[in-house]
Amino acid sequence: MKNDLLQELKRFEDDADQCMKCGFCSFVCPIYQEERIESSVARGKNELIKAVLAGELEFNSELTDRLYKCVACGACTESCPTQAHIPRLIVAARADIARTEGIKFPYGFIYRHLLPNRGLFGNLLKVSSFIQSTFMPKSNGAIRHLPNFMSGLSHGRQIPSIAHKFLRRQVPVVNKPAQGIKPELRIGYFPGCMNEYVTPHLGIRTIEFLTRRKVEVVMPSVQGCCGAPVFLGGGDFETGRKLADTNVAAFEKFDYVIADCATCSCAFKEYPRFLADTPERKEAYTHFAGKIRHISQFITDVLEIPASSYQTVAAVKGKKLTWHDPCHLNRHLGITQQPRKILQSIDEAQYVEMPDAGRCCGMAGQFNLLYYDLSQKIAEKKIDSIDSTDADIVVTSCPGCEFQLLDNLTRLDRPQKVMSLMEVLE
Amino acid sequence: MQSGIIKQLEDIAGKEFVLTAKEDLTTYAYDGTTTWSHSPDVVVLPNSTEQISRILKLAHTHKIPVTPRGSGTNISGGSVPVRGGIVLCTTRMNRILDINKANLTATVEPGVVLQDFNIRLAKENLFYPPDPQSFLSCTLGGTVAENSGGPLCIKYGVTKHYVLGLEVVLPDGYVLNIGGSTVKNRTGYDLLPLFTGSEGTLGVITKITLRLIPKPAARKTIMAIFDDITLAGAVVSDILANGIVPAKVEFVDNFVIRRIEEKMKLGLPVEANTMLLIDVDGSIAAIENEAEQILELLNAGGAQIARLAKDENEANMYWKARSAGFAAVYSAARTVIAEDVTVPRDRLADFMKKLDQISKESGFEIVLIGHAGDGNIHPSVFTNSREKEDLDRLHDTLKAIFEAALELGGTLSGEHGIGLEKQHLLAKALDPRAIEIMKGIKAILDPDNLMNPDKIWERE
Fold first, then answer.
1. CB contact under 8 A, B23 and A47
2. Counting runs of H as helices and runs of E as strands, what totals does chain A give?
3. CA–CA gap between residue B422 and residue B411 (Å, rounded)
4. CA A110, A113, A118, A122 torsion-angle sign
């Protein structure tokens, strides 16, 4: 294969050389643990990539299948004696595949046209929201089948419904603390797709939580998708750059950019690594990445809210809580203590740690769509962990994880509830 | 490979578990070594002894080479299918069939990963000592086939000391049972240690009965620093001569001490020449006494620092540092070859001096990590060069290392095996008649030379 077709892989070639083939990754790889075949695991995927770089293999559907069958949870790197970052190589390979082979419909359509265009995406979701509320029975509380164009992708699984009124129709761009209180900090808020379209009430909760603590929360209207499904999942770096440029410009004026979604936070931090193709972008993306704080980080490390001042909603009082670490938060951003500190500070609820709290739930964005059966098997191990804690509520901070936990708890007829971190706090 | 054969393999193991795509074959072309690689024609992942027997019968009828394999973490080239054919991978056969607390035995399928086994045994307060450092990934079938050992072998021995019974499918498909579940078993020639360590050349191990021991009640870790490796070696001999057999005695050299200090900031003297890590285990009373004696011997023997870890955390930190150091060696250069030679324990210091000389003469940095307790050292030679000339010189250097070990009465391989990596040196290490006998045994069991062919001996 011509080298110019491998421009992204070439940039990460040193990562490929780090692997010493000890196979330690196999013990922690959620996919290998299910399939027990070599192409499931980082070592095997790395050897495939090395064969591509050596011109022995070409991109084709077989290879693409193996490189997409990765949850990018990063457990392999964590367990690796040399910290070889195979998931990064996989993203790079996806980029080279996307550039040279194109992206499969309908994913390509979603990445290139829908996600970058908030208006179009919003309108499509609104149509499905209308159909859903009009024709579908309301069952399982807030969970209903989503009979929209995405249902072809969703295998009829249980996923949350689309909001009637999106977040930015409900709140102004600038949200100030109550009248007469001078803001001590002014931050840019990135609500992400989930809070924008599905759970705007949670976006409002985050905004209110912060404004009550003397933070002025600004939600610039031009912001786009964080790009995670586009460039990390789909390897579409070109569209990724458009999104990155939009977001960098939207938040230029802020010292802190707060996201309450683990994946969005992670995607922002990855702009410089994957998307910076010019010195200007490198500088702008690096500067932007430095401003990103996940909400749990912002609350505990920047605002330093004392443990005594956490209050919780009625639904949580007297309950047992456990925390599920989203991969994008713990291994990718190193945020593990902050959310636990918050949950442990809630006097009115009991916190219990689950075994393997950091193990991937199996969602991993489009992985769940492409390999639904495998994704469910991985989730079942997570559900076993949750069961073992006797907790009433699983708290996390990633819409993807929430979807997955909700879908599988419902499927397996479990009583536990899933809540987002900011849903727990008052 | 003929499509008819593939079809028959699919009938035996299921279509899903017969892999023929180039993208799959590529991932079964290697093991844990740096250089050996060859794709098979097909990979089969059977799920039972019966399936394996049928696969071997098929291969036998059609004269197809078969390379058995677990996780492929061996570091000898042993599971690389150099003649193509079938890779028979046992990773799906990962059931722990029985744990007998009263008889202190366990029966397992070959694909059980060592760490999964350890976790299960720990729940029962049982202990299986052989501890190859690939424990997170290696399969028990692989450790039996390679007769693996690790740091604990100074006190507890290697895999062959724990194998009580085996079910092996022979190259013609016959299912052979040998040994049993008793520690004492004197019935004819003992075939267990023949299959144990046979590197997959005599058959496919399909069921293993292992001897277990109760988990030691306690453990203590001692860390010592020396500015002269000869002194460290002498203290290890003193400890053994005083009747103390530690569970582990590991050492690392200056390169690794520096990397550990960079990463973990333990306050180690970075100019130090050698770090020893010693574990003692057993009853609480016994190990307190032993730890005290060891500290005295270390101090008397010229240790700069000799420290007893105050708790489990500190102990784990030292062992973690040792692993991190080990990793640092592997990530230090593009090509790192960690060798596996063993010398008699009392020749360790001489061997170190010789290695230092080889390093100076060759110009390659040689980093030393090893099991001081049993004379098994992994000299790691590395280079960033991709030039053929440099790589050839690297191999000459490795040869010099082996020759030095053999001269001191050592062996070619302590725990990694011969595989492909060391077959060119086998004749130097063994009595020619011994090689002849080994080949004779191979010819009885595998007359067509189909079972992991071209391993141990060079192809004639």
1. no
2. 24, 11
3. 11
4. negative
- Note the CATH number of domain A307-424: 3.40.50
Is the CB of A21 less than 8 angstroms away from the CB of B137?
no
pLDDT digits over B347-393, tens only?
Answer: 887 888 899 899 999 988 888 888 888 888 888 888 877 778 888 88
Q: Is B138 on the interface with A (CB under 8 A)?
A: yes
Instruction: Check residue B411 and report its DSSP letter.
Output: B
Domain boundary among B199, B215, B231: B215
In a domain, B383, yes or no: yes
Instruction: Identify from B17, B18, B23 which residue to disrupt to test chain A contact, counting A C-beta atoms within 10 A and taking the largest count.
Output: B23
What is the count of structural domains for chain B?
Answer: 2
Q: Please determine, for the modelled complex, whether the ipTM score is greater than 0.90.
A: yes
* Phi (first) and psi of residue B451, to 5 degrees: -90, 110
Entry pTM: 0.91
Question: In terms of CATH, what superfamily is A3-101?
Answer: Alpha-helical ferredoxin (1.10.1060.10)
B240 with B123, same domain: the answer is no
Specify if B429 maps to a domain: no
- Closest chain B residue to the Cα of A32, Cα to Cα: B91
CB contact under 8 A, A48 and B23: yes
Closest CA of chain B from A294, distance in Å: 27
Asked if domains A167-302 and A307-424 share a fold, the reply is yes
Query: A143 pLDDT band (50/70/90 cuts)?
Result: very low
Residue B270 structural domain: 218-407
Q: What 8-state DSSP symbol labels residue A253?
A: T
Q: CATH code at B115?
A: 3.30.465.10
The residue-averaged pLDDT of A41-70 equals 94
Domain edges within chain A = 3-101, 107-160, 167-302, 307-424
Inter-residue contact A330 to A336 (CB < 8 Å): yes
pLDDT (tens digit, 9 = 90+) per residue, A235-293?
A: 999 999 999 999 999 999 999 999 999 999 999 999 999 999 999 999 999 999 999 99
Which residue of chain B comes nearest to A67, CA vs CA?
B23
Q: Are B125 and B144 in contact (CB under 8 A)?
A: no
Question: Within a domain: residue B346?
Answer: yes
Nearest to A31 by CA among A379, A404, A378: A378
Convert the pLDDT of each residue in A279-310 to its tens digit: 999 999 999 999 999 999 999 999 999 888 88
